[in-house]
Design a protein that fits this description.
- Two copies of one chain form a homodimer.
- By secondary structure, chain A is of the alpha+beta class.
- In chain A, the strands form two sheets. A six-stranded mixed β-sheet of chain A has the order 1-2-3-6-4-5.
- In chain A, a hairpin with a 6-residue loop joins strand 1 and strand 2.
- The longest helix of chain A is centred in the first third of the chain and has 18 residues.
- At the A-B interface, helix 1, strand 3, strand 4, helix 3 and strand 5 of A face helix 1, strand 3, strand 4, helix 3 and strand 5 of B.
């Protein structure tokens, strides 16, 4: 059997099974405790007398698969490579801290491009108080960037496994903007460097919701993940991890006016299935949801509810209660 | 200017300069202190009230550059990918703890190969008390494995910047075995799975010197690194980081009898320039060196001394005091 037959998520399940052989009764020489295992946005460990929970995450971008220099300048690529990791840590309610950068690149890569890449990484590290402390650089026929990021959380980490029937489902901001920006870039609209559209900026400089993540923890939210593969698809993952189902009310899904203007006929598809939004998706009972929405900045919205239907199934209803047919699919890393 | 014009170490220096803009007066929201910055075997951070120093390292292997399935079976590849990272942590005097695995692979990769890869990783994690807690899997036209490893040290981390003129230079075990094994594999000797030679096992299952690293710290050693790119080349890096020079006495360099037997004419070249040895290289004044050698298992040996010559220059002398001409060069990731 090949990886493509199994798909990304089948493979991830297998790897989780294999690596659990070092298992729940594992005792590390360092005597830390694995508070949140593999399978969430980030793994979380606590040291017995340590002051914080540490969060560990890693994310990779491969040339021609996750980016092309045609749609993403190097400096923005540097920003994005770290943004996706900060977003994972934000989804647990943490702040980023230490960053390791691995670069694979062909020997004929321009040094000035690498410098631009690092400038973008330094931009976002400065913005979020993170620090690049090490890494590795290797020769590779094709370019790739792997970021490993350690974060810290002072409260209990939010997880994907805590959604319960009756919870409301919400996002911390509008979705679909990044996908709209990518569509504009691929269509050749607004690809000039000057006067980039709002949507292209969303695609090139996504701003992880780290502050929102901490507000959620403070409000008592325990169930969250980040939206990286599309709202509908990521909600299905959260439901699958929690053993529940969900309904999305499509008319409640928040989107930027710029998205609705640029894509009047299919903005909802982009909002539901677009990906790379890096807002947070969370669920909570009504009273905690009220407190969370009061604390969050404008743009956050309730978009649905958790139900006790078939595990991992997300139903999308329009304003009249009619099911919206699925128009797209989330990102599978091994799909053709 | 292209990366190949600059070379690996020129590029690393530039990146260190760029990333220092988040600089020495950087205050993290997590309030940790960067005890050992980018440029050593691992970065080290301490939390104000934390019980240990945390070590962070990452290492990547790219198909066709750092390995080929012809010379390294998948299970051994899994072992090696983590071994190089454990060795980095060992060089600081620490134990490995949490591991993140990133795999890039073509969609037609066999799931059974990925399973073998993980079995090798689980083998070495079990041996060294480490635990795989997360990672990322992505589609890529060519396979690569990136390991990010967090370790812990209870004593002060050993660094590359602490060698001083008058120190003796030693290694914690024989060198050249892995390079000899690779040579045998490439020459087609002993490539069968049964009855693998001692040297091929050294190449396929290098055993990081984590226990030795802790013995060194206990003996008072403060200057060390691991030997991954060849003894002569790595000693030059240590000297460069410390602003000193060194002399190697070639007749004192320890090598396995199997290496001398298999390569009677060029075992010394393999020992000096081979790479992937994963023993530790360390320097210390005479009294501390005596204590360290008493504590270390058989195979450790003094191989030279630190001098106040030109920064980073390593001179190799034979038994009669005659300079040995350089016969090879260390590994540059961007050389052709």
């Amino acid at each position: 059997m090949r990886v493509s037959d199994l798909g990304e998520f089948g493979l991830i399940e297998l790897v989780q099974q294999w690596t659990q052989t070092t298992g729940p009764d594992f005792v590390s020489p360092a005597a830390y405790r694995l508070a949140v295992p593999n399978g969430d946005d980030a793994a979380a460990i606590t040291f017995p007398s340590g002051p914080v929970t540490e969060l560990y995450t890693t994310d990779t971008m491969v040339d021609g698969v996750h980016f092309t220099s045609a749609t993403t300048p190097w400096r923005d690529l540097g920003w994005k490579a770290i943004a996706s990791n900060i977003s994972d840590v934000a989804a647990m309610g943490g702040d980023p801290a230490a960053v390791l950068i691995t670069l694979g690149m062909p020997p004929d890569t321009l040094v000035s491009d690498i410098r631009d890449l690092y400038l973008g990484m330094i931009d976002i590290c400065g913005e979020f108080g993170a620090q690049i402390i090490g890494g590795d650089m290797v020769r590779s026929p094709l370019a790739f960037i792997t970021v490993a990021l350690t974060g810290v959380a002072t409260g209990p980490p939010m997880v994907r496994t805590a959604a319960e029937p009756g919870h409301l489902v919400a996002v911390t901001g509008p979705v679909g903007g990044s996908a709209g920006g990518l569509r504009q870039l691929l269509d050749g609209c607004g690809a000039s460097n000057s006067g980039e559209s709002t949507l292209i900026l969303q695609h090139r400089r996504p701003y992880p919701h780290a502050a929102a993540g901490k507000m959620l923890v403070a409000a008592g939210v325990s169930s969250a993940m980040d939206v990286s593969d599309g709202l509908a698809d990521d909600l299905a993952k959260l439901c699958s991890a929690s053993g529940v189902a969900a309904t999305i009310f499509s008319h409640q899904v928040p989107a930027l006016p710029a998205l609705k203007t640029a894509f009047p006929n299919n903005w909802l598809d982009l909002a539901l299935y677009g990906g790379e939004d890096y807002v947070l998706l969370f669920t909570a009972p009504g009273d905690i949801m009220d407190a969370a929405l009061l604390a969050l900045p404008e743009g956050a919205a309730v978009v649905g509810e958790i139900t006790d239907g078939d595990r991992g199934v997300v139903t999308i209803l329009d304003e009249s209660g009619t099911p919206v047919p699925p128009a797209g699919a989330g990102w599978d890393h091994f799909a053709d």
